[in-house]
């Protein structure tokens, strides 16, 4: 048996440290000067670190940070946002990275999505195109136009409860925070659709702890997604002894436990729940429970259903409430558009000119001005403003004329492309008519660059459900009340809490337009 001397061990250790240092220095030099990405504009620190992006995330302005970088580099198609990440701001990049067809086949979801896989892979978090396609096959019918009709009783039930609360404010004409009540509405509604029961927040007039946990858990996932350890990101970040990080991690654990308990309760009751008509309850979660892949016979197990539940609550509750908020804000700031919309609603519903009851989506769906108002809000204020990252194919790819090597996370931030003046003239103006007055070619480009619900095969599958309750809410509010901002000259900015929200609270005043009910 041969033993190494102490001096030999020491020499090997010294050599290992020296080689590690040399390797680290070599990587730094390569990233700073020789990498194909080194020529791209962006803060020099992004060549070697994610610190600039992490700081922007911590200060609630990551999407704005990237948009500012494009503004600082006029004409730039691509900006380097990290050692291995690039953001694009060009229509061709949208098609190349997210579009259908062979050109985008090699762009798989990046390791960032692993941070959003909780107890299993949801349709949002799974990186496998095969698994995503299978999941989408299984539940696509749950979000079809026909399914919307089965969900509408739950939407109408929650809308009626919401309007009764609004009537109280209208009678006193007391200024109040309508966004706060939108959040309560969407939380109760998604509880009905995703868990089989509401949270009781509209009745209580205060949010459930669950809603706060959702936001904090998403912030934890976003922070962990910036780490370079892939599927280990969440575990590694959970070890970081920083109080703010530990608070977010504990919120994630509590959030997952809440979803587990709620889903277990849903499983016990799903066989007994029926509508007043006596028919079985057919909400979104019931469809997920029953879903079966027609090709393989696969059904989601409890952990996957739990992950889908968590994803649904974020996608529906958070994004829906903030979109309704921006719609009311812009309609109040643009009284001519609001008046035109009210006139169209009155003509469509001559027997319900004052919004006494929820309006059917099958009719509202034909109001192009209402649709375009929603599109314009989502263009300016896409709930997720930063880029949804995809990895370039192993052999690299030319994106909008810029070569990017393989394995680099690339994406198009909705907040940046949505205000690109070459795509949307006068981009900072809220103008719903741009969606009807633009020529055919310009309109096609605008639609390509609209990322309010994502793009391509991975866009939000719940788009129809969200649009349903958003337009029903806005239409009934406009018919039922005169809605005015308390502060006439109010100008709202954005602050990013994963979801892009207003940067300050504000109040509205309601007055009943017709006789009291």
How would you sum up this structure, described in words?
There is one protein chain. This protein is of the alpha+beta class and 517 residues long. 52% of the residues lie in helices and 8% in strands. It has 20 helices and eleven strands. The strands form four sheets. The protein has a five-stranded mixed β-sheet with strand order 1-2-7-4-3. A two-stranded antiparallel sheet has the order 5-6. Helix 13 packs across helix 16. The longest helix has 32 residues, at 302-333. The model has no long low-confidence stretch (mean pLDDT 86).
Indicate the topology.
Layout: H1 6-34, H2 51-58, H3 62-72, E1 78-82, E2 85-88, H4 91-98, E3 108-109, H5 129-139, H6 145-172, H7 178-195, H8 201-204, H9 209-224, H10 233-238, H11 243-269, H12 284-290, H13 302-333, H14 335-348, H15 361-364, H16 368-380, E4 390-391, E5 397-399, E6 402-404, E7 409-411, H17 414-417, H18 434-437, H19 440-448, H20 463-480, E8 481-485, E9 494-497, E10 499-502, E11 508-512
Parallel strand pairs: 2-7
Antiparallel strand pairs: 1-2, 3-4, 4-7, 5-6, 8-11, 9-10
Helix pairs in contact: 2-3, 6-7, 6-20, 7-13, 9-11, 11-13, 13-16, 13-20
Features:
11 strands; alpha+beta; Cyt_P450_CS; two-stranded antiparallel sheet; heme binding; 517 residues; oxidoreductase; single chain; Cytochrome p450
Helicity range: 40-55%
| CATH class placement | Mainly Alpha
The tally of domains stands at 1
Unreliable stretches covering 5 or more consecutive residues = none
The CATH superfamily label reads: Cytochrome P450
What's the N-to-C terminus distance? Answer: 96 Å
As for the CATH topology, it is Cytochrome p450
- Tally of strands: 11
Strand content: 5-15%
- CATH architecture term: Orthogonal Bundle
* Category from helices, strands and their pairing: alpha+beta
Mind summarizing the main beta sheet?
5 strands, mixed
Overall average residue pLDDT: 86
Sheet with the most strands: spatial strand order: 1-2-7-4-3
